[in-house]
Amino acid sequence: MRLHRLDITAFGPFGAQQSVDFDDLSAAGLFLLHGPTGAGKTSVLDAVCYALYGSVPGARQGSGQGITLRSDHAAVGTRTEVRLELTVAGRRLEITRQPPWERPKLRGKGTTVDKAQTWLREYDATTRAWKDLSRSHQEIGEEITQLLGMSREQFCQVVLLPQGDFARFLRADAEARGKLLGRLFDTRRFAEVEKRLAERRRTTEARVREGDATLLADAHRMQQAAGDAMELPELAPGEPGLAEAVLSAAAVARGTARERLTIADGRLAAAESARTAAGRDLADARELDRLQRRFAEARERAARLAERADAHRAAQERMERARKAEAVAPALELRDAADSEHRRAADAEARARALLPRALADAGATGLAAAARRAAEELGGLESARRAERRLADLVEERDGLDRQERADDEVRQEAETWLADWESTRAGLQGRVDSAQEAATLAEQLAVQREPAGRRLEAARQRDRLTDDTEEARRRALASAEDAVEARAHWLDLKEQRLHGIAAELAANLTDGAPCAVCGATEHPAPARKRAGHVDRDAEERALAAYQAADERRARAERHLGAVREALAAATAEAGDAPTARLAEEAEELEAAYARARATASGLHAAQEELRRAEGEREQRVAAQQQAAVRSASRVAGRERLEREQATLEEELARARGSAESVSARAAQLERRAALLTEAADTARVAEDTAQRLKDADARLADAAFRAGFDTPADAAAALLDDTAHRELQRRLDAWQSEDAAVRAVLAEADTTDAARRPPADLAAAERTAADADRRLREASSARDAAARCCAELDRLSAHATASVRRLAPLREEHTRVARLASLAAGTSADNERRMRLESYVLAARLEQVAAAATARLLRMSSGRYTLVHSDDRTGRGRSGLGLHVVDAWTGRERDTATLSGGETFFASLALALGLADVVTDEAGGVRLDTLFIDEGFGSLDDQTLDEVLDVLDALRERDRSVGIVSHVADLRRRIHAQLEVVKGRSGSVLRQRGAG
User: Fold this and answer.
1) Rounded alpha-carbon distances, angstroms, from residue 593 to 434, 460, 582, 585
2) Is 96:119 a contact under the CB 8 Å cutoff?
């Protein structure tokens, strides 16, 4: 990479445009960049970095995406711009960058922010013209980074060599060196490998622990099942040997459980044998007890039968008389039935005769029957008269129906005539309502079109009134904030000028004896400047600057707010015009009222049309009903005349038939009742005569049956009879006594029962206790055997599950062991890693070894062959090794720490280290040639001989067509280096002066 030209405008301390011709400066190989403190030497390097990467090193970038890079000395209308022309990878490029710019608005007051701009052009040697490549920040950034092969941090370390940083690098510990080298060589991928290995180790460890926890849970369940037959290993999940310990303990528990099962089987067999013997003894005792009790009960029953023997014989005699009386029972029942029948027939005859006239009360059955036949014959002659009477009632009902129809039709005709008389006026009114509604609908559509513009004008007028007041308030605030910003800026500039006048005292406050001056590099300070009363320090200036920036930000916000309010006021005024808001509101209200009235009227259009349609339909219905009523009235005249003729004929016939009765039906009812009473009386008389004869016959048969059965009178036979309930009860008593006597005799005759009665009483309670004890022992033995069997089955199941878990975890455990070993090795915590060197540190150590070798080639020349830089991977204290850096002194042959070098030795050692690092980083970046380098400060700490040797080394860089820019205050360098770029500061900003080149 070679720089050709740099143009700076309104950047940093440079208020106007400044240019640097690097081709002219590089012709001599070495050029000097010098100027007073604060003039802007570093800003030249910042401009190069900003052109390439769009940002400056460290905290100088500030905030606001580059707004703070703008020079405070620049004119208001001048935009900040950096343009760099360079050659990289054989391509000549021009990069132009403009950071964001807050400028005054072109119209109105206030400011606006223009976005950052970037251009990339390439020179075409064939056409001898520049061609545009891109205007995208991202594309240009990626293109430059790819061509240079290094990031901004690497560029600032390799091209802009900050000697202070490398002096600290020489004295730093391993951790600080690691951070710097990590940024330069981008070893994040190796740190990521360490992280990934650690994460994978934690993941596999968690999975192994989870599997071991499951295995331990199975072991706890096996311990619960086995009881005291199993002891768990005292190991935590993840510890080695856990699986083998659990499986061994499970095997011991299974063997113990099987032994217990064998013992339980033997105890169960013995308990079953004892239970069988006890059951047989209990059954024998129960049988003996049953027979002895059976014999005793039989003796007691025999005694009770002997006590009831007399009563049994009396019952037998009573049952014998009842059997003889049963032969007379049918005659007795027949005589009782005949007597009951005769009494009922006599009562019925008496009731029937009581209802007859006195002339027929004593008549016989034959006379009553003849009178009934005469009444029936007279009743048959009235049937035709009864039909005529029913027909006459129907005729009366038909005439009444005709009268009702006539009245209904008269009402229909009158109502239709009344309604039709007002039809024309009704129709005209309904048609008028329809027309009015249609006109209102048309008006509502017209008003609806006018509503929205009127509403917008009214709202705009109201907003115009509000914004008028807001505009005045915003104008006052903008004016006040502008005045505050002007005062804050003047105060900040005054403090800044005061601080610059006293900057020597501020720098002198940091001087210590023996330490080089940051300005001249001298280690002696005979007359340092002193702070005067009212001295302005850096904090006061920064507070004033912050106050000014805050005030300026408030001013910009107030001006932007004022512009926005004015734009809104203009838009509202254009919409509303100059009409007062009250008048527009009144017009809008009147328009809304008219629109509401038109809508209300138009909403009745459909209802009016429907009402007119219904009225026309009703007219047609009423006309049709009037015509139909007239037709029905004419047809009813003939029907009424026919009914009147038929009615007269029927009335004459009925008058002859009913006689003295009110009606034919009444006369027929009289005859029907008379015939029924006569018929019933004749029938009851005949039945009474028949029942009297049957009663006489029954008395004769009863007397004969009682004599043959051995009874003196029928009454004695009746007294000996038993009803069914008494007969069954007496027979039951006789049968029960007979059955009991037979049962007792049978029991007393049994051989085993009599034999048991002669034996001693049975001890049933003792036999039952013995059987209960045997049952209990059997249940206990069975429960113990079942528990032992369940324990064996559960242990077998859990052991199988645990064995499967161990097999399943074996590959995972092997993977965890392998990953943990790699992760520990990469993290430097493994016993195999003797130097406790992390993977990233190992890679950085290799890079540092290369840097030390490259730096030694120049350090030998600078130190006249005395010093050599070597890399050391020894551990320091309890820390890790790998990033140690020592210097070998050829005069003493001893190796010592770089922190023991003197100030001058530290400078040329750090310079050699920086140049070596630049070579290594260049090779790491793909071999991009760096033809332009800058070295910042530190030359004041060298004596004349060492300075000559250092300059010779730097001058040797020209052998590879390199140019080196030295940034320094040392006056002797101005005599030694003729090509110079001076930065001159002033109240209106700094300027660049280029001399002695070419």
Assistant:
1) 22, 21, 16, 12
2) yes
pLDDT digit string (tens) for 705-730? 777 777 777 777 777 777 778 878 87
pLDDT of residue 18: 92
Residue pair 281/815 in contact by the 8 Å Cβ criterion = no
User: Average pLDDT per run of 10 along the chain, which is 998 residues long?
Assistant: 90 91 83 84 88 78 62 86 90 92 79 88 90 88 82 71 59 67 68 78 74 72 72 67 72 78 85 86 82 80 79 77 75 78 79 73 73 68 67 75 77 78 79 79 77 78 82 87 88 81 69 69 67 74 88 89 84 78 81 80 77 79 78 73 73 64 66 72 77 79 76 75 78 80 80 80 82 86 82 79 75 72 71 68 76 80 81 60 76 81 71 73 61 67 63 61 76 80 88 77
d(C-alpha 601, C-alpha 768), whole Å: 109
Give the angle subtended at the CA of 359 by the CAs of 355 and 361, to the nearest 5°. 45
Q: Which of 874, 870, 872, 883 is nearest to 909 (CA)?
A: 870
Q: Give the whole-angstrom CA distance, residue 64 versus residue 62.
A: 7
Amino acid identity for residue 65 in this structure: Q
CB 455, CB 539: distance < 8 Å? no
Q: Which of 40, 42, 159 is closest to 934 using CA atoms? A: 159
Alpha carbon distance 261, 68 (integer Å): 91
What is the residue-wise DSSP string for 569-595? HHHHHHHHTTS-HHHHHHHHHHHHHHH
Using an 8 Å Cβ cutoff, are 341 and 684 in contact?
A: no
DSSP 11: B
Alpha carbon distance 189, 621 (integer Å): 101
pLDDT for res 927: 47
> Can you tell me which residue has the tokens 């001048």?
78
Sign, CA dihedral 206-208-211-216, equals negative
What is residue 164's predicted lDDT score, i.e. its pLDDT?
A: 52
207-246 pLDDT, tens digit each: 767 776 777 777 777 777 777 667 676 666 666 666 777 7
Long-range contacts for 290-296 (Cβ within 8 Å, ≥24 apart)?
Answer: 291/752, 291/753, 291/756, 291/757, 292/756, 292/757, 292/759, 292/761, 292/762, 294/747, 294/753, 295/747, 295/748, 295/753, 295/754, 295/756, 295/757, 296/757
Task: Map tokens 């070893």 to a residue.
Answer: 187
**Token output for 64:** 């606001």
Neighbours of 425 (CB within 10 A): 9
Please report how many Cα atoms fall inside a 13 Å half-sphere around the Cα of residue 700, on the Cβ side.
Answer: 5
Residue type, 539: D
Q: Which residues are CB-neighbours of 174 under 8 A, at least 6 positions away?
A: 841, 876, 879, 880, 881, 882, 883, 884
Look at residue 95 in the predicted model and tell me its pLDDT: 95
SS3 letters across 909-946:
HHHHHHHHHHHHHHHHCCCCCCCEEEEECCHHHCCHHH
* Count of Cβ atoms closer than 10 Å to residue 250 Cβ: 23
Q: Residue 406 has which token pair?
A: 């006539």
Token duo for residue 311: 């009563």
Distance set, CA 341 to CA 44, 338, 715 (Å): 156, 5, 21
Compute the residue count for the chain. Answer: 998
Per-position b or e across 350-364, b if 16+ CB within 10 A of its CB: eebbeebeeeeeebe
- Look at the block and give the residue holding tokens 């970046």: 925
**Tokens describing residue 461:** 């007028």
Whose CA is closest to 866, among 827, 828, 915, 908? Answer: 908
Please name the helix (run of DSSP H) or strand (run of DSSP E) that holds residue 214, with its range, or none. helix 188-226
Provide Rg for the chain, Cα atoms.
70
Instruction: Report the SS3 class of residue 81.
Output: strand
Q: What is the pTM for the complete model shown?
A: 0.40
Q: How far apart are the first and last CA of the chain?
A: 20
pLDDT score, position 118: 93
Query: Cα(863)–Cα(901) distance, rounded to whole angstroms?
Result: 12
Cβ–Cβ < 8 Å for 910, 938: yes
